């Protein structure tokens, strides 16, 4: 109910002349127009601060991408689009995208399959609350600490996980991070360990909103539990999964902490995903101009992914499905 | 109840199989989730020799050697006396709490304003805000470093607080906007009728969103505390935090794993209770408010 409609609805304030003053004749001070400036003042500190620490660096990034950035007395030299054009012939740059895609694809497929299975099992478990609490602990670990922890567990001479891998015959003497064939899986396992619980939590939230009447209707039609899962539950949790996958995918661009701690990109570039390569170009070789060009391409892809995510979020039908009516 | 009967009649093969498999699956996943944390904790209490003893491959019975040690707190003591972890703990606390307070204070004002006003380009503004949160840290850290260096903020706590604010502020704005959207405008209207001005009216509804404000302060602390890239590059020098300091314990030779595991425990231990405290808001927080439990 807004102010204007309630006034109009009142007989005393309708157009008919009742012989006494109407709203329009009241002094302006008694009914001040809502000030837009109030909202501007309230939002300004945050917006200005955010602009200062994001837009300014972004413009700087664009500037750097067109320059050969010098240190100290050596000034920046304008090189046009050279930083960008060289990317096309940079094998490691292209390989970096490929590895990022491969890493994300494997991580996400494992996380979705295991995460959804776990959510379904948990949803039917009596101990759901306790178990969920225990399962989500890995998510609280700082990614770099998780990386170091697994670096220790994977160690070829005294790592307990290496011992387990050896004992079940998965690996020989070489540790999982020591070979170009297995190192990628080594870093994938850490991501799976930390973030599968998130997929489970999101799926669980979705499963709680699967309409009971749809499940029952399907069962009346003679369907079993398996059919119920694939024909009723899965379509209902699909928007949740979509969001989970998009968010995790974007986090793979964002977080390289664990990879830096585990392999730093090695052995022989087998785990040098694009963000790791970008880190090396900027902070190992100090080629800030080229780094900026790589960063911009990475940013553009992130922004496109972000637009897709927001579109998914804003879609009214999905929004309804996601938020549900079980707000408590 | 009729519906119950229909469900209970369903005793297909898969349902029976699921009944047997699910406890095994849950147990396996529980071990998989907690074993690394358990090993980290136990290893932090082992001295150098004990930490390196592992049975021969395939010798399953020999695994008991894991528990065959005399616990020592030497690593924890050494961290705080020799490695200056007291300072790093202090830096972590100041930087994460500082950025969380800035983010939630400025963020709640901005979020309220965005929630209550309607203007052209609002969607674009919101997208810009959320995109700053999604930007890869490696991509923005180079220019941020250059800017911070030119104003002498590198290696200082204010610099690190500001760096953490780049991801905490957009998070706080976005999440709190969702919260204010859920508060009816009528409450502020009533407050204004009572003679309060608009800012006072804004303060009136703050207690209604207090649980959310508290939860997002904690989530912001969590994100900042666990950050590594900003901490190691912007904080390098004078404002090293726990994750950055833990990483630096890894030397090319003679790595003292007991100490690193102890540092890992020191870094992780405060965050687990904090995370469980905001359990109810965790999913919303980690999905940018898209999914609510």
Protein described:
The complex is a heterodimer of chains A (328) and B (293). Chain A is an all-alpha fold and 328 residues long. Chain A has 14 helices and two strands. Chain A has one domain: MetI-like fold, CATH 1.10.3720.10. In chain A, strands 1-2 form a two-stranded antiparallel ribbon. In chain A, strand 1 and strand 2 form a beta hairpin. In chain A, helix 12 packs antiparallel against helix 13. The two termini of chain A are 24 Å apart. The N terminus of chain A is likely disordered. Helix content of chain B is 72%, strand content 0%. Chain B has 15 helices and no strands. Chain B starts with a helix and ends in a 7-residue tail after the last helix. The N terminus of chain B is likely disordered. At the A-B interface, helix 2, helix 4, helix 5, helix 6 and helix 7 of A face helix 1, helix 2, helix 5, helix 6 and helix 7 of B.
Low-confidence stretches of chain B: 1-9
Radius of gyration of chain B: 25 Å
CATH class bucket of the largest domain in chain B: Mainly Alpha
**Run of helices and strands of chain B:** HHHHHHHHHHHHHHH
The name CATH uses for the topology of chain A is: MetI-like fold
Biggest β-sheet of chain A: count, sense, barrel? Answer: 2 strands, antiparallel
CATH architecture tag of the largest domain in chain B: Orthogonal Bundle
> What is the CATH first-level class name of chain A?
Mainly Alpha
Structural class of the secondary elements of chain A? mainly alpha
The most extensive interface, with participating residues per chain, is: A-B, 109 and 107 residues
- Physical arrangement of strands within the biggest beta sheet of chain A: 1-2
**Overall shape of chain B:** globular
This entry's quaternary arrangement is heterodimer
Integer tally of domains of chain A: 1
For the secondary structure, the number of strands of chain B is 0
The termini of chain A sit apart by 24 Å
CATH superfamily of chain A: MetI-like
